[in-house]
Every structure is written in C-alpha cells, then in structure tokens.
Write a structure and sequence with these properties.
With 527 residues, the protein is an alpha/beta fold. The chain is 46% helix and 14% strand. α6 packs across α10. The structure holds 5'-O-[(L-methionyl)-sulphamoyl]adenosine (MSP).
Length: 527
C-alpha cells in the first residue's frame, strides 16, 4: 500500500490578519504538495489556524467582541488568501473544533494518568497589564521592569507541568541517530545545541481566572491548556489520530497511511516548540523514532534588513500585492527570490523586475513567438522531426537532468533552484530562435531550410510543453495557459492531473499536431 505524502505547515495565529510571511510558508507547502502530485503520489496537505490563547483573547477584548466571533473574521481572511493564491490544501485545522478538543483532552488525560503531567506552584513577578509572569530577561538596564509592564506584583500560582526533562536523553540520541530530522543541516545543529542546554519541565496550563479562551484540562476544570498541547496537536488530530489508542499500530489506517509528516515551519518555531516540545510530546504518547516527523525549516522575509512587525507598521499585505500583480506573479516572486532555509529581503521593485525579465520577456515571449511562427509559417501544424532531434546534445541533457532531479528528490524540490533552471531552458530556446532566424529560413526556397525551420519550431513547442510541466508546482495557472495554447491535454484543462512528470519526455507532441493561437501569458507590468 503506497504511503500518502503528508505535508503540514504551522497553523497561523488568528490575532491579526495574514501577512507576506504567512503567504510564503503556505505557497511553499503548496508547491511541495503539487510537486509530489506531479510525481503521481497521493498527497495530504494540512494547514489551518491557531484560534485559542492570550493574544486572541486580548485582541478580541480590544475589538469589543467575543473571541469566537473575532477568530471567525480573521480565519475567513486566511481562507480567502489561500484561495486567492491557489493554495490547495486537503485538510483544514481549526483548533476550536470539537474533534480537535477531544484529541487534545484525550492526550492530556493519558499523560496525566501515566504521571507525565503534575501540578506545581510557581512564584515570581507578574505584570497585571500584560497578564504574564516576568523573568530577568524583561528587566531593563537599571534592573527594573519598565513602564510597559504596568503594575508588577509578586504572585504565587499553581499550574500543571509536563515532564519534559525526562525525555531529554531520548531526544539527544534521536537527533544523533537521524541526520535528516531537521532540514537544513545547520538548523539540526542549532536544535541539538538547544536540547543539550535544556533543563526543567514545561508549564502547560493557565488558571481560567487569567485565560479562559482555551481547551479545558480534562482532569481540572479550573484550568485551560496553554499553547503547545493545543496548537501542536493539530498535526495529528486533523489527520485521524485516535487518542484512546496508545499503540501506534492500532491507530486507524487513515492515520497510519499518512504519518509521519513533512512539517514546514519558520525558523522562529523550531526551538523550542517543534524541535523540543512537539517531538517529546509524540515520544511521550508512544511514537517511535521512525514515526517522528521531519522538520523543514524556512527562513524569514524581512523588510530593509529589519523584521516585519505589526507594531513597527512595516508588514506587507499579500492581498494588496496579489490584487496589483496577480497571484502567479506573487507566487513566482516568493519562490524565486529566497533560498530555501535562508532569510531574504522583500522588494516590490524586484518583484516587478524579475517578473518582467523572466516571465514576460523570457517564457511569455518564447510561447508567443513560437505559436505566432507556427501559425504564420506552418498553418498552425507542427511537424515532428524525421530524424531524432537536431538539438545540441547538451540541451537535451539539460532537460533530462532536470527531469531526473525532479524524479529523484525525495522530500522537496528547492523551488528557487528549479524555477530558475526551468526558465533558463526557455532562454536557451529564445537564444536558438535569435541565432537561427526562422523569419529568414521561412523566406528561403531550399527544402533543407524548410526542414530546419520546422524542426526548430517543433523543438520550441516541445520545450514549452516540458517547461510547463516543470513550472506547474510554482505557476499552475501559467502552466495551464501554456498547455491550453499548445492545445495539449485539453480534456484536462484546469485540472491538476493534467500535469505529470511522466509526460516530461522529449517528443510527445505528435506529427501534425495543431497548436492554438497565442494569447499573452504574462503581460508586462508597467512600472
Ligand atoms: N501559531 C503559531 C504556530 C503554531 S504551530 C503548531 C505561530 N503562528 S504565526 O502566525 O506567528 O506564524 C505562522 C508561520 O508563519 C510560522 O511558521 C512563522 O515562522 C511564519 N512567519 C511569520 N512571519 C514570517 C516572515 N516574516 N517570513 C516568513 N515566515 C514567517 O507561530
């Protein structure tokens, strides 16, 4: 039974609307999901929203509406954005749903019964205004807590704790044994170092007097669970996990067929959330080492070298960009101008420049001029080269190599690399057209010139067909546009099944294939 490729992203906080960072992560996951479908694999892509917690409770109070209503409005904005950006997920996680609450409570009860959760007292300085305990990190240079914390008092509070430290040795040995637990490598090293420094257990509750917008502890109605058991559990609760069954092998097959997942997260939530709390939680509820998820950690988009933040007022709104330039232009920019795992600086200027240079002038131009010439010189009909293609060997090798890499990559393609190389192939063909000057060949009466012209146009059309397949994870709409104009697989127009890596083989367009009329695919953006 083939496994389903299961991919998840972080679920997004619903205390404020989505920004470009959220869009990046979801488009990245969408691209990887589409890439696996292209290989013919079954895919389950789960994403969603993180609806509980202090931040939401505070934002809702500020807006003067109940938290349940507040999260509905923000959740809708995320749903709208994913639709707009063609992010196509198979599962949707909302942490206020009943199914999720049951799984979270079931897990907490099991861990409580097994002695992995205990009650303890905490004493310390507490900011009444910010509703949180303060540590020495919050003290200013003068050793005092600043005015932003308002009234600070000494408090004692009881809470529940998860025995995190019990699992430290296990986590170290797991990370030492599995070299690709975290991608890229330097993030695994960062995590390993953080685990080595780990001490103490994890506070997992808040008294209801402080926070009531959360999931109640099943063993103490005066408390809700705070953040991590609520948020992280989404990855299994929406994949069919049954908390009443402790052995992984007795879990429903719907869950076992999917798990473990490839989990895409930003660099800020590797340590400690996913790399420590989540892996330990899974271990504590009985998951073995080979059932641990793999963590793909991406970098952040900054603005002018600085972090984007709502308080600094420098967040980029993805709705505005998608309306202005179109979803495909934004997807292309987000995938091509950042190296997977690294940070990058967001630049609207570069978005426009790169779209115009690589999509409008390069790929769009190749499609337009190829179809124009096939219409003009060959009444719309392609002629398959009689001998094997006369293309230079290195060009054919270039395609083969790229297609082979797509096939071989087990986890993820690197979108910036493959989109760049696919578009490079388009520029090679534009170069052929310039060098061979088909408009001159068309005027010649020599049969060998005619043959050369027909071969060239066939090769250009064929290159477009293959490029469309290769770019389809990043630019699905453009890939459909190319197929439509080539008049290829019309019966599957608009459907994702239209693209398959198995078709990315040179020479599939038949002799006398009739192509469509050219329509500008990437109209130039006027600056
Ligand atoms: N709700 C938590 C995660 C819980 S996962 C069980 C959370 N939410 S978040 O809305 O703050 O962030 C969601 C994702 O967006 C994270 O993976 C985060 O790294 C990513 N990004 C937030 N800002 C970003 C950028 N500026 N650039 C790229 N990704 C960024 O954390």
């Amino acid at each position: 039974m083939p496994k389903t490729f299961f991919i998840t992203t972080a679920i997004d906080y619903t205390n404020s609307p989505p920004h470009i960072g959220h869009a990046y992560e979801k488009v990245l996951a969408d691209v990887i999901a589409r890439y696996h479908r292209l290989k013919g694999e079954e895919v389950f892509f789960l994403t969603g929203v993180d609806q509980h917690g202090q931040k939401v409770q505070q934002s809702a109070a500020k807006a003067g509406i109940p938290p349940a209503e507040f999260v509905k409005v923000i959740t809708q904005k995320f749903v709208d954005l994913w639709k707009k950006l063609h992010v196509q997920y198979d599962g949707w996680a909302e942490t206020t749903s009943d199914r999720h609450k049951k799984v979270v409570q079931g897990i907490l009860q099991r861990l409580f019964d097994a002695g992995q959760i205990y009650k303890d007292k905490q004493a310390g300085y507490y900011s009444v205004r910010q509703e949180q305990f303060l540590t020495d990190k919050e003290r200013g240079a003068d050793g005092q807590f600043g005015a932003e914390w308002g009234e600070v008092e000494f408090r004692e509070e009881e809470n529940y704790y998860f025995r995190l430290s019990r699992h430290k040795e296990w986590l170290l040995s797991y990370l030492d044994d599995r070299k690709d637990a975290v991608i890229p490598d330097f993030r695994q090293t960062e995590l390993r170092n953080a685990v080595a420094r780990l001490s103490g257990d994890l506070c997992i509750s808040r008294p209801k007097s402080r926070l009531n917008w959360g999931i109640e502890l099943p063993f103490d109605k005066e408390f809700v669970t705070y953040v991590w058991f609520d948020a992280l559990t989404n990855y299994i609760s929406f994949a069919g996990y049954d908390p009443s069954l402790s052995a992984f092998n007795s879990q429903p097959s719907t869950f076992r067929d999917k798990w473990p997942a490839l989990q895409i997260i930003g660099k800020d939530i590797l340590v400690p959330a996913h790399g420590i709390y989540w892996l330990v939680m899974l271990h504590a509820i009985g998951f073995t080492d080979d059932q641990m998820p793999q963590l793909l950690v991406h970098g952040w988009w900054n603005l002018g070298g600085a972090k984007m933040s709502k308080s600094a007022g420098n967040v980029i709104d993805p709705f505005v960009l998608a309306d202005k330039y179109g979803a495909e232009a934004l997807r292309y920019y987000l995938m091509s101008d950042i190296a997977l795992g690294k940070d990058a600086d967001f630049s609207e200027e570069r978005l426009v420049e790169s779209y115009n240079a690589n999509l409008a002038n390069n790929l769009g131009n190749l499609l337009n001029r190829t179809l124009n010439m096939v219409q003009r010189y060959c009444v719309g009909s392609l002629r398959k080269p009689r001998e094997s293609s006369k293309l230079p060997a290195d060009v054919i090798d270039g395609y083969r190599q790229l297609v082979n890499e797509y096939t071989a990559a087990t986890v993820s393609i690197y979108p910036d690399v493959v989109i760049g190389r696919s578009l490079y192939l388009a520029s090679v063909f534009n170069g052929f057209i310039e060098a061979q000057s088909p408009w001159t060949l068309a005027k010649s009466s020599k049969p060998e010139d005619r043959e050369f012209l027909e071969d060239l146009l066939y090769d250009c059309a064929e290159s477009l067909r293959i490029i469309a397949i290769l770019i389809s994870p990043v630019l699905p709409k453009a890939a459909h546009g190319i197929f439509d104009q080539l008049n290829w697989k019309i019966e599957l127009s608009g459907r994702e099944e239209r693209f398959s890596l198995a078709d990315a083989e040179w020479g599939k367009l038949a002799d006398e294939h009739i192509v469509g009329k050219p329509v500008p695919l990437f109209p130039r953006i006027q600056e």
